[in-house]
Amino acid sequence: MSVTITTLVDNTPGEHDGLRSEHGLSFYIETPAHALLFDTGQSKAFFDNASVLNLPVLDRITHVVLSHNHYDHTGGLSTLIQNTHNPLHIHVGQGFFTPKYALNGPSRMYLGSSFTREELITSGQHVHEHRDDLEAILPDVYLITNFPRNVDTAWKNPRFVIPEGDSYVTDSFSDEISVVIRTPKGLVLLVGCSHPGILNIISSVQQRFKEPLYAVLGGTHLVEAQGHRLDQAIGFFKQMDRTLLGMSHCTGDYGMKRLQEVCSNYYHNHTGDSLIISCS
């Protein structure tokens, strides 16, 4: 048994100059029995990159997980739907379809997806809005959500808002979900942006599974963590010396520099990188 996780798109390019990078994230996950997609970046770049990498995305994918309703994680879904011949199972968190905005002084900017639930259903897709703390969607593939906010990381940012009545309230990102994969070497955690706090997400996985965590991949939103919050996160990761840390996207240049300095198990995950986990 082996599991392969390929980063179809991320902020930073790797050695393959034929691939497109963008501010966004998308993982293609292959297990012996199934294939699924976690996030779709902000454009069709993930789709074009899959073709360049000769990955059978259209032939194998039946499930798509969207970590949260921001454009840089959902923007490529329409391209996938337009090119696939079979209905997709699209998995989102509770409240995913609530519009999301960013405030900049007196102005606002829409940051959400370009589709509605009704449009997805009309196009023949199966939409699953998950509310449970932990749920299996495929053999050895789980969704985890409802993260306790026990650690003060960078999750509560008043710049990110959702509408409430005639006004706006701070977005708590209750819709954010992560993917956990059981592999021969332990659990692999895939995170989108970790708005509820990356330490809260990791702690939730550890408490609910009580199994070794082999790897964490994705965006940690440490780009907005400063001072004691960043130091706390770096110290937490330093103790995870048996876990691969393939973090990128919204981790930020400084956050990744700090991880590189203190965590020998950290590596910068790029567009086109594949993590292969096998029994051997």
Describe this structure in words.
- With 280 residues, this protein is an alpha/beta fold.
- It has one domain: 4-Layer Sandwich (Metallo-beta-lactamase, Chain A), CATH 3.60.15.10.
- The chain is 23% helix and 31% strand.
- The chain has helices at 45-52, 57-60, 71-74, 77-83, 117-122, 198-209, 227-239, 253-262, and strands at 2-9, 26-30, 35-38, 61-65, 89-93, 101-104, 107-110, 126-130, 134-138, 141-144, 160-164, 167-170, 178-183, 186-191, 213-219, 244-248, 274-278.
- The strands form three sheets. A seven-stranded mixed beta sheet has the order 8-5-4-3-2-1-17. A six-stranded mixed beta sheet has the order 9-10-13-14-15-16.
- A hairpin with a 4-residue loop joins strand 2 and strand 3.
- Helix 7 packs across helix 8 (253-262).
- The longest helix is centred in the last third of the chain and has 13 residues, at 227-239.
